[in-house]
Amino acid sequence: MILDELKTATDIVPDLHDGQKIWSFSSGEKAFKWDEFKSEGIMAIGWDEIGDLTGYSSKKEIKDKLNQLYGTKSTHVNDSHALWQFNNDIKVGDYIIAKKGSKTILGLGVVTSNYIYDNNRNKFKHIRKVEWKKVGQWVTEDKFAVKTLTDITPYKDFYEKLLNIIINGNEVDYQKNDLKLSNAKFITWFAPIISALKELNNTGTPNQVKDIILTYIEKDKTSGINSMLEFNSKDIDFARLYLRFAGIIDGNEHGVWKLTEYGTNVIMTDELASYILKNRDKLQDIDMQNELQKYSSSNYWWLNANPNEWSFSNIEVGQSIDFTSSNENGNKRQIYKNFEDAKVGDIVIGYESGSTKAIVAICKISKEHDGERLWFEKVKNLVIPIKWQDLIEIEEFKNKKFQGTLFKLSQEEYNAIVDLIANEYRNIDAPFPYSEEDFLNEVFIAPDQYNEIKFLLKNKKNIILQGAPGVGKTFAAKRLACSLMGCKDNSRIEMVQFHQNYSYEDFVMGYRPVDGGSFELRNGCFHNFCMKASNDPGNEYYFIIDEINRGNLSKIFGELLMLIECDKRGISNAVPLTYKPDTRFYVPENVHIIGMMNTADRSLAMIDYALRRRFCFIEMEPAFQSKQFEEHLKSKNFDIALINKIITQSSHIT
Fold first, then answer.
1. Class assignment of domain 300-426?
2. What is the spatial distance between Cα 76 and Cα 70, in angstroms, rounded to a whole number?
């Protein structure tokens, strides 16, 4: 198929055969290698020092090598994933959409070779040959993930829009375009602003409007917002300004956004948005930046929490607490003026130091400084905390240091943080629906038993699936979690396997060696999982423990042996931890534990009563005699006689 002859992007979709994928690809920082790749008919990625990728058998091996070569300041999760996909997952015939930054499309090509490590190249030695079918420069309203390589095949609506732009869209002339592209995207926010103001009875502060727009994005509401669009405060400010001059928003009151009588009745269509944009010549005499400064009421702050003194995790969403502007010795904190300058409604980025080293919350100033204290309210937990090591990789924070307590952020720094948060959320794989019916079709148990398990897990919080080897305990545990969530969402499921050397330090918290021969206090997998769940109280989370009876459970759980009880959950039951006695930890109510136990293992007897009473035990039995197993074999076109023989022989075994 010759793509140049296509009339619509949807013509390409029926030709996607099984396994064929569509990828977005960045040709170096700011696409500085694009001209070279285009002329040579290739795509290539860096990290040359790692050598030939065919020599690595897993992503972990690649990640370990990256840590060895480049250090551990970065997690290298995305890097190792991109390298693995470049060698293993991309196939001949896959489509590549070349991009620049998050909004510009550079070309569309088809992969024509397997992976090649070209040691004759000076840089970017990992290559694949690509036939670039169409090249140019196009701008999309939807944003690409900020990664070198992304499989966008699951996002059909997204890649169809991209293909339509490439094949049928108008190429951008950057020299003749009199409106900066970075500003043009703001028209997407016209409808959400109007919807948010209507929710606020037609009047609200900028922060109130933006908070509601954030909920639109998180809940994937339509409200005129594309589900893949990223929150951008400055673009929303530009959109408000245009709506003001269009007579939709009243701009007479400083720090207040208010719909006019016309605005309360307007229905924002694409045609109206385009009309407002096309008539922008009426605004040419306005200095946009000065106008934004004049009508903006928000400052942005960075607040450090020292977990040895207090923690954001101990504050509920909606709860306000006070923070003293003097230390325990009565001396004023660093940059004392910041406490005096903070105003009600200002946005606060909540950062936790210590072993966490991450942005964990978004807050706002709820009461101004009274000479001794400043009050702030926790507005949002971050389901995915933004690690400091990831933050300092972006331009705005490369040389940034926050020593002290409260610091002012520039608009650019705040926007960079918001963009990073949005990217982290969008990089989560889209969950696929998964129902009780799907579970019963895959796990051969009776509906009554499923309902019993569902009831026990919901009320007891902790269950153990026990049974002989090979009955499908692991298979059932993962799908049980998915069926209760209503979707396959791996971001809310964690799985570990216990063994004799597994310890409290692995599970909860402990010291680990770091570069330079020193040790660092790090959170264990269950501690991190609980933090993640506490930041997302509206969803259920499932922690799966394979071979739960093989570990020394009292040693592994420690004080958590009490906290996992169904009636000991929540912040009101928080207790100090062994390695952090000055802070308090709790197991959230939305965390469920599914253990698995092999009844053929003699170590079963090692589980003491203290742990047994905290779990409900559910027997998993072979299902060879079940109707579902018979129907499953029939669906695979097994001969009826063979099916009967399999069932009969299996019954003798079980």
1. alpha beta
2. 9
Maximum distance among all Cα pairs of the chain, rounded to whole angstroms: 88
Q: Are the C-beta atoms of 109 and 132 separated by less than 8 Å?
A: yes
pTM, to two decimals: 0.49
* 572 backbone dihedrals φ, ψ, rounded to 5°: -70, -15
Same fold, 3-168 and 300-426: yes
C-alpha 547/C-alpha 383 separation (Å) is: 28
406, 302 contact by CB (below 8 A): yes
CB under 8 Å to 302, separation ≥6 — which residues? Answer: 348, 349, 351, 402, 406, 407, 408, 409
Three-state SS letters, 26-88: ECCHHHCCHHHHHHHCEEEECCHHHCCHHHCCCHHHHHHHHHHHHCCCCCCHHHHHHHHHHHH
How many Å is the Cα radius of gyration of the chain?
A: 28
Residue type, 264: T
Helices (H), strands (E): how many in the chain? Answer: 24, 27
List the CATH code of the domain at 181-295. Answer: 1.10.10
State how far the Cα of 45 lies from the Cα of 96, in Å rounded to an integer: 14
The CATH number that domain 3-168 falls under is 3.10.590
Tally the C-alpha atoms within 13 A of residue 277's C-alpha that lie toward its C-beta. 21
**Structure tokens given for 216:** 């639109």
Q: Where are the chain's structural domains? A: 3-168, 181-295, 300-426, 433-439+462-619
Instruction: Confirm if 492 and 539 have CB atoms less than 8 A apart.
Output: yes
pLDDT of 573 above 50: yes
Residues 6+ apart with CB under 8 A from 78: 147, 148
- Tell me the HSE value of 479 on the side-chain side, using a 13 A CA sphere: 17
Q: What is the pLDDT of residues 102-160, one digit of tens each?
A: 778 889 999 999 999 999 988 899 999 999 988 888 888 777 776 788 888 877 777 88
Residue with tokens 């190249």: 121
Class of domain 433-439+462-619: alpha beta
